[in-house]
Amino acid sequence: MPLFVMQGVSKRYGGVRALQDAQLAIEAGRIHAVLGENGAGKSTLIKIMAGVVAPDEGRMLLDGQPVAFTSPAAANDAGIACIFQELSLIPDLSVADNIAISNPPRRFGLIDRRAQRRMAEEALSRAGADNIHPSALVKDLPLSRRQMVEIAKALARKPRILILDEATSALTAADVTKVYGVLKRLRAEGLALVYISHRMHEITELADECTVFCNGRSVASFAAGTKTDNEIVELMIGREYNAAFPPRTARTASDAAPLLEVRHLGWTDRLTDISLRLSAGEVIGLGGLDGQGQRELLLALFGVLLGTTGEVLIDGRPVAITGPHVAKGREIGMALIPEDRKTEGLMLPMSVRDNLSFAALDTLSGWGVIDKAAERDAVARIVRLLGVRTDGTDMPAGSLSGGNQQKLVIGKWLMMAPRILLLNDPTRGIDVGTKQEMYQLLRQLADAGAAILFYSTDYDELVGCCDRVLVMYDGAIRRELIGAEITERALVSSALNIGAEARKSGPPQALS
Amino acid sequence: MNGDWAYWLREHKGTLLAFAAFVVMFTIYAANHPMGLNANVATTAANKGVLLAIVAMAQTLVVLTSGIDLSVGMVMVLANCLASSIAVGSPLATGLGVAGVLLTGCVCGAVNGLIVIYGRLQPIVTTIATGAVYYGIALALRPVPGGDVNAALADALTGQLPGGVPASLAVLLILVAVVWLPFRRSAIGRAAYALGSSEIAAYMSGVPIRRAKFVAYTLSGLLASMAGLFLTFITYTGEASAANGGAYTLYSIAAVVLGGVSLFGGSGSAIGAIFGALMFRTIGDLLFVFNVEPLWQPLFQGLVLLAAVCLGSVRLLRIRNRLDLYG
């Protein structure tokens, strides 16, 4: 009998179906891999298992008994420990404090530091991380060490089911090998492991069982090794809807210098040797798995990151973009539509009009005084252009729907008529109708001569909107797909870096 | 294991720095005092310092949870007014009176905590409002300064122990042992640090966030009322002084910062805040022994505070992503 079963579990966020009728059966002493592309419902699945969110429908059985978790603590008590992608460590506490956080050993009501120290040392050594000092503060540790502490923390709870969500993404190669060893030993000890990873070779190496998620549904479960990598990618793709995309404009190659050129851009260890050329009228997509450096690239171009290396050229001339105020200046004319519209894009309590005119205030004012009439006209024009559904421009921005808020963020930058538009996953969490308007708008802007760099976690969008797509992996551009080459299949397989891994281990093969 | 002491140093850096700075300042003060460091000089200095130190401890508890308590001074004033009415008479009556004052402090703190937790209001606004309420009650209790306190008890706690050691230092030591150390070492105290450092991570780790906040605010109220009681023992009278309440609230925040407690929450110690408070007091005393006009005192205290805050933000120079500056 399986140790843990999920039957028909569904979850909605607002109007978005994150998970629908999901099935999962986990057995003790096995490693169960969960696969799926961005937004396939894996994260929601884990959050439900770990008690972070409650499912809308469906049931969960542990040892054949129905269970429901109201909080992470409840899931812990039932023996489910989760290693989250976003770390759950407390930066100001020591490693030992963190490992014992959910249930510190006590004597006479007070924390027994010696017992805690022993517990931490034991957990660290079980996780293969003896070289981490239990008294070190977590905030002083590099990311890879923190990840190991996170694993030790989960093990210290003596779980029966251990969920690892991209647990190796921040690790060094040496640590990955150690973690593999640890996971295999835990499997031998009879733990059930749920392993989420985007790296196909890890799945091949570790998994006994696989379940593929697509569009919030569990589409297939099979024993590891019974399907090829390509078959798995096919399962991950299967789409339900195809949004309508505007036709691409035929482009003729020109000899003019590109509007934006980047040469060998680098930043800490998160971006390496990025080069790209972006011409007027072009829409370039940034693809790849979430968190491979796409955001950092956009921030670097916008002048937010300090200590970048390499060169940025505008109209063929080198420029130093030292901050957003320089980027949006007349010579460069760059705009960044941020990913988190609520904190980085809008001042929610302020009015629609104020929000729209922020970025363009210098063109709407003379000697520091805002020209109210000019502001009103400009705002009205943008509201009409974007079809923002609002009850007048005095409403607070926070009272609009998500899609209309996103239009405001874009509209605010259109007010200053940017030549270069950087978009950071602009359609996340907005409805299909607004998405389509957004696609039309992007194409219109490009046709009017803007250059657009567009990061999206939705592969469909990249296929439908972009003239070229640059696929990023591990902070570098690994592949460029042009025109008809941009297919979901090519995007998914190059995002997983399957080609590169095959090349490393097997005979060299040409790019398709 | 090797290198334990290095980690210990790292964890207690703020506290140790505050301690060292205080020792240096106090040595200079004692060496230059016209009468030298005799028992009376020490006792007067200790009484003033301990009073602020207790309020700073109260502030620390809330600041650790990444909150701020602007009502500590007012709770102190309220306790002062109440103590001057009920902490008098026979030993039994005095005992009951003291218990009543401390209970009132707990209630004030608990009310702050409940509003912050269940009303989900920002601590700064909540405590400005409740602080005004507490001050209003104090004013109703004692519209004009007056009242009395059990003199025997007051003299015992503010005088000298055999050997000339200020009794107030013993009081402070007992408070640390009875209130702070158990809190620091308990699971609830750990939870308070955790939620101050990262509330999301604490929640994800199954830490009892609400209970920890409630305990932190309640103990803060308790300590503030102890300060009020101590103030009564020093002055033998009760006074609903808005100036006192405001000043002690602001000084307590200064002491907390000087003591190496992070205003972002999650790191620091009440011990550090105690030395921060003593240091803050010593600045004033130093100016006195060097014959600087008392008018200059706020200016110098401000400069020292600014310097301490600057030291604390050296880490910002290492930031590579400007968004981290605003996060």
Description:
The complex is a heterodimer of chains A (512) and B (327). Chain A is α/β, with parallel strands linked by helices and 512 residues long. Chain A folds into 3 domains: 4-237, Rossmann fold, CATH 3.40.50; 258-333 and 418-434 and 441-512, P-loop containing nucleotide triphosphate hydrolases (Rossmann fold), CATH 3.40.50.300; 344-417, no CATH class. In chain A, the strands form 6 sheets. In chain A, strands 6-9-10-3-11-12 form a 6-stranded mixed β-sheet, sandwiched between helices. Chain A has a 6-stranded mixed β-sheet with strand order 18-21-22-15-23-24, sandwiched between helices. Chain A has a 4-stranded antiparallel β-sheet with strand order 2-1-4-5, covered by helices on one side. In chain A, helix 4 crosses helix 5 (143-156) and helix 8 packs across helix 17. The radius of gyration of chain A is 25 Å and the shape is globular. The two termini of chain A are 45 Å apart. Mean pLDDT of chain A is 84; it is low at 501-512. Chain B has a domain at 44-242. Chain B is 75% helix and 0% strand. Chain B is built from 15 helices and no strands. In chain B, helix 3 packs antiparallel against helix 11 (209-235), helix 4 packs parallel to helix 6 and helix 8 (167-185) packs across helix 9. The A-B interface holds A 52, 71-73, 76, 84, 87-94, 97-98, 101-102, 104, 106, 109-111, 113, 133-137, 140, 153, 267-268, 299, 304-307, 323, 344 and B 1, 3-4, 7-8, 10-11, 182, 185-187, 190, 193-194, 196-198, 200-207, 262, 266-267, 319-323.
Keywords:
heterodimer; A: 512 residues; alpha/beta; Rossmann fold; 3 domains; six-stranded mixed sheet; 18 helices; 24 strands; 33% helix; globular; B: 327 residues; mainly alpha; 15 helices; 75% helix; 0% strand
